[in-house]
């Protein structure tokens, strides 16, 4: 004989367990659908690597890993980095061009990770015009963004393709892993030589308030001042240094979402220190980037048919919150099976 009530209790547990299993399946399915939909509507053909890839404290990039990366060259020598955003346009930093800009002095190299060797993937383009953001301030580094129109449209290939642009509403959360690439100096000293092969390094974005405090103290600015302006983004290490170097200016900081890469920042400025007459990258400060999507109206005014994408980059807290229902349901299911 079964003890009184045990049969009913077993039936009730079976009913609860069946409904919880159904609920768990629905939650997991909904979560995967939402995550799959985020950032899925991007510019056609942009932000795709032909191979999976990975500066200062970085490593050499693989061929085709960053097909939007360009070298902006002045009188035939590498001057700055840049990012291809369409067949005819490159975005770079305003500080890379000394006004009055002589368009004929510049050319753009595309489709190659080496800037000193001639290869079959290498493509050069003359520059039709350079458009500096009219609000660029060389003292504060605000609006450090420039558009470069190529003389003729470029044939897009696996080795040469544009990066996707973010909608103005998107703010990349702190602690988001992103990648910065360039041919900048191989050593912290400003006078060191450029890298021959494109370098890449992963960095994490830094909260703007935290970054402002760090730079405010270093620059001895009064409380309430914000050296990190609204159109800037910090990324890198708060201990030591990990990120871009002199010579990387104008290059891309890109972040990936669902297999597509988006331009989150343009290499702008960093802290430096001078000891015994030698100027080096200062340790303990992240790199500072211009946020191109803070200038979307200006970009759209100058670049025909440009498009921007709304992307939901997950924050650590959001990721943890999304996991709670699944973990809770799994815990209950395990308890019911005991």
Kindly summarize this structure in a few lines.
The chain is an alpha+beta fold. It is 21% helix and 26% strand. It has helices at residues 6-37, 208-218, 296-302, 316-337, and strands spanning 59-60, 69-74, 77-84, 89-92, 106-110, 123-132, 146-150, 164-165, 177-182, 199-206, 232-235, 252-257, 260-269, 272-275, 278-281, 287-290.
Structure description:
This protein is of the alpha+beta class and 338 residues long. It contains four helices and 16 strands. The chain has a six-stranded antiparallel beta barrel with strand order 9-10-11-16-13-12. A six-stranded antiparallel β-barrel has the order 2-3-4-7-6-5. A two-stranded antiparallel ribbon has the order 14-15. α1 runs antiparallel to α4 (316-337). 38% of the residues are buried. Residues 1-39 form the signal peptide.
């Amino acid at each position: 004989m079964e003890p009184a009530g045990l049969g009913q209790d077993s039936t009730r547990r079976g009913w609860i367990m069946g409904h919880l299993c159904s609920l768990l399946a629905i939650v997991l399915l909904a979560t995967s659908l939402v995550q799959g939909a985020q950032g899925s509507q991007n510019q056609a053909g942009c932000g795709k690597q032909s191979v999976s890839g990975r500066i200062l404290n970085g490593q050499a990039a693989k061929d085709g890993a960053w097909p939007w990366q360009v070298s902006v060259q002045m009188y035939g020598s590498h001057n700055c980095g840049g990012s291809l955003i369409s067949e005819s346009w490159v975005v770079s930093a305003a500080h890379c061009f000394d006004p009055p800009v002589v368009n004929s002095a510049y050319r753009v190299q595309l489709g190659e990770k080496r800037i000193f060797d001639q290869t079959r993937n290498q493509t050069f383009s003359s520059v039709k015009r350079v458009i500096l953001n009219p609000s660029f301030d060389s003292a504060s580094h605000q609006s450090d963004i420039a558009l470069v129109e190529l003389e003729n449209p470029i044939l897009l290939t696996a080795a040469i393709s544009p990066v996707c642009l973010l909608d103005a509403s998107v703010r990349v959360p702190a602690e988001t892993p992103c990648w910065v690439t360039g041919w900048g100096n191989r050593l912290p000293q400003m006078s060191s030589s450029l890298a021959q092969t494109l370098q890449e390094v992963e960095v994490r974005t830094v909260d703007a308030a935290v970054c402002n405090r760090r730079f405010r103290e270093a620059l001895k600015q009064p409380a309430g001042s914000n050296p990190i302006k609204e159109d800037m983004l910090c990324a890198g290490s708060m201990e030591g240094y990990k990120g871009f170097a002199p010579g990387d200016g104008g290059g891309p900081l890109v972040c990936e979402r669902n297999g597509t890469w988006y331009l989150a920042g343009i290499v702008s400025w960093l802290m430096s220190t001078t000891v015994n007459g030698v100027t080096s990258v200062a340790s303990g400060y992240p790199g500072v980037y211009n946020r191109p999507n803070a200038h979307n109206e200006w970009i759209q005014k100058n670049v025909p048919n440009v498009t921007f994408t709304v992307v939901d980059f997950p924050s650590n807290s959001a990721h943890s919150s999304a996991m709670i229902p699944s973990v809770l349901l799994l815990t209950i299911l395990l308890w019911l099976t005991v």
